[in-house]
Design a protein that fits this description.
By secondary structure, the chain is of the alpha+beta class. It has helices spanning 2-39, 57-62, 118-123, 128-131, 186-192, and strands at 48-51, 64-65, 68-72, 75-78, 83-99, 104-116, 147-150, 156-160, 163-173, 176-180, 202-205, 214-221, 224-237. It has five helices and 13 strands. Strand 9 (163-173) and strand 10 (176-180) form a beta hairpin.
């Protein structure tokens, strides 16, 4: 009986040591992935990284992680010439194959989300004078941009200074976001002499999206434009 008790105690102690070693290894790996994401240019700032695999020590042998999660706030995205903040970025990656001491990693499947405020979204659109014929007749400055806000499901509202422009929609194809469907009505139309004049669609293409993912959709929400990301077989690091 005493031998059995000693063996049991020994197994418990050994198991505790292995679990502790496993969690230490996870922490080190998470820190290394976070550092490499910044060094490789996949993230504009150091993210929080969480590895959900357990036990993780077996992953070190196979060099493959099944559950890798990344989060960050205040990342930057843009069209190359203009950069804005991407808030509340979250990504879930699976089938992450790692090589070269974590200096290279490819993702079998990934998804994520983030948010651009309406104020920042307006900065990615050209000035109103380039979007609206007759905008020069409105009581706003030459470089004034549209002010955007939530307009209900699938819609955003636009105004130019104190004048309401109307509602439109935002949608995406690939990494390109397009705003269209806006139509001058009411006071803005009368002042500009452009009753029922539609504003030409405007587009911008986001580059260097976080974690190597691609844009898969956009959804207007009360606090900004929600971006959805997806990627299959993408390069995470390297």
């Amino acid at each position: 009986m005493r031998g059995w008790v000693k063996a049991t105690i020994g197994l418990v102690v050994l198991s505790g040591l292995l679990v502790g070693a496993d969690r230490i290894a996870v922490g080190l790996a998470e820190d290394e992935v976070a550092d490499q994401l910044v060094k490789s240019g996949r993230m504009s700032q150091r993210p929080d990284v969480s590895i959900g695999d357990f036990p993780f020590l077996t992953d070190l042998v196979s060099m493959k992680v099944d559950d890798l999660r990344i989060s960050a706030d205040g990342l930057t995205v843009g069209d190359g010439s203009r950069q804005v903040a991407l808030h509340s970025f979250r990504a879930k990656l699976s089938g992450v194959a790692v090589s070269d001491s974590m200096k290279s990693a490819k993702v079998a499947k990934g998804s994520g989300s983030g948010l651009i405020s309406y104020a920042d979204l307006a900065q990615l659109l050209p000035p109103a004078s380039q979007m609206m014929p007759g905008a020069g007749r409105l009581p706003v400055g030459a470089g004034t941009r549209l002010s955007l806000s939530y307009g209900g499901p699938g819609k955003i509202k636009a105004s130019l200074g104190p004048l309401a422009v109307g509602e439109g929609s935002v949608h995406s194809q690939g990494n390109t976001v397009t705003a269209d469907g806006f139509q001058l009505t009411g006071v803005a139309a009368m002042v500009a002499g452009l009753a029922n004049q539609k504003i030409e669609p405007v587009s911008f293409t986001l580059d260097r999206l976080p974690a190597g993912l691609q844009l898969s959709g956009v959804t207007p929400q009360e606090d900004g434009l929600q971006l959805a990301f997806q990627g299959d077989g993408v390069t995470l690091i390297g």
